[in-house]
Amino acid sequence: MNPFRARPTPISLALQGGGAHGAFTWGVLDALLEDGRFPITAISATSAGAINAVALAHGLCAGGREGARAALANFWTAVAASVSFDGLLVGPADNPGFAPAARLFMHWAQLLSPLQLNPLGLNPLRALLSQQIDFERLRADDAPRLFVAATHANSGRLRIFDNAELSADAVLASACLPSLQRAVVIDGEPWWDGGYSANPALFPLVRSGAHDILIVMLSPLIYAAVPASAEEIRARALEFTFNAAFLREATLLSQSCASARGSLWPYGRLERRLVRLRTHLIDAGEALSGLTRESRLIAHLPFLQSLRDLGRERALRWLAAAAPQVGRQSSADLGALFAPPAGLTGRPAG
Question: Fewer CB within 10 A of the terminal residue: the chain, N end or C end?
């Protein structure tokens, strides 16, 4: 063994939610695990990101990197098998939409509450989580650190479920869309999708001691056009709602890092962590921007596999370009990425 061989650089992950679009993150994780240069020690995640996080952590505990790749593939394949889309879809496999009859049903379903649509509260995801994820193992001290976000339905406040509190209910709460599912009740309190309050939360990773944080972002950094139709406006407004907290936190984190680095003597533990923090980004960008919003609800295996392949391609591109910076410096400037556009140039302000 070469004693001078560089040690692997651990990374922490921040995984956004996005329904079926979370299969893009599956592909990103698959490529990172296959590459093997960066052990994953902590994950902060929301909604579909939380599903990826627990499947990844479960696989790592059970069988290392290859176990994690298998766990992710098994879970997403099982998700696709749990719902039949026969006769419901139109369009190509890599960009499907609902057929007119299915779209009409979805329109009318918006007028009903989840209690009216699903009085028995059936959720296939609960069975999949219980069957495929060993939550007791994830609560062990040697499991990757996990931070799963959910939103309190009666106050809008953020709650982070860590390993000690992790359960199938916590993941279901993080992925609970209130227009489609009833609130998930944990210890007598109702919880909705974590995207309303953090998509995902970044500071738990900082406080855990992470030095390199890789954000896997499913939402576009900037949209190509202003929405015109009523449906487009509603969809855009909802997407802004799910990303507002993340954008604020990412901007605050960037400003806090700059302040700590500009200090003559960063004396606190948090300040010292901020000085050493490096940030990285894999952005789905235009790979997902051309998909219809309804495609987030389409867990059809050919579509999921096409998203996985897109995620793998983006991750391989990132590994080729930015991996040498991991452990040395940031490859993504959050302050510049999330600053308001300057005038008509589209360049970040500042």
Answer: N
